[in-house]
Amino acid sequence: MSIPSDDRDGRRRCRDCGEWKLLDDFCSSSKRPSRRGSYCKSCFNQRSKASYAKRVGETHGRSVKPARELPEGHRFCADCGSVKPVSDFPRNRSDSTGYATYCKPCHNARTRETKQRLYGGNREYHLRQRYGIGEKEFDELLAEQGGVCAICGGADPQHLDHDHRTGWVRGILCFNCNGGLGQFRDDQSRLAGAITYLRGTTWQRVLIHPGVYQMCSPTRGRPPSPRS
């Protein structure tokens, strides 16, 4: 005896489980007037999995592993073989769960291995991705500068400076000079204003006689208060 599957008050009876459910609980189907299929979504998914397992077995001669049963809010890491809370996994918008396949330690290890294999290390990867040059070009530019900061002349600068509008590399600076340009937003008028300010507020040491110097007052500002 067949189970009726006609619609009643916005509901339909699933042909597999036999339960009456809302039409929204059924998969879409263009062949029926209601645009809904004969099986509820849960039963349809079970049928799809069974069909896939059958095709894989017939075509490739192997069986499909059953879905892993996991506690709610947990995820399985295929690298370390551990079941961990989802908070231990990096975010991944492209995954349906919103989290990456591997836990954070395994994900980081894979990232380091990839950078080492493709770029020879993390620094080469960073330079290529952010500035479009590698360590070889970095060393060549530093040699052209004489091995010192392009602004203050300090030894062993390690910060690659670039134009934030065009992305073009400008030179290699020390930590302080690179940070200074960033704080002044690469604005020449701000830098010129800072120079004018320093000239007007810095006391000058002037030679008035051989071996004798005098501190001259700036145009504005005041001397420091005497210490008690």
From TrEMBL:
Single GO MF annotation: endonuclease activity
Gene3D superfamilies to which the protein is assigned, alphabetical: His-Me finger endonucleases
Q: Which UniProt keywords apply?
A: Endonuclease, Hydrolase, Nuclease
SUPFAM superfamilies hit by this protein: His-Me finger endonucleases
Where on the tree of life does the source sit, at the highest rank?
Bacteria
Answer yes or no on keyword Nuclease.
yes
Q: Does the keyword Disulfide bond apply?
A: no
Stated name of the protein: Endonuclease VII domain-containing protein
The scientific name of the source species is Micromonospora peucetia
Q: Tell me the classification of the organism that encodes this protein.
A: Bacteria, Bacillati, Actinomycetota, Actinomycetes, Micromonosporales
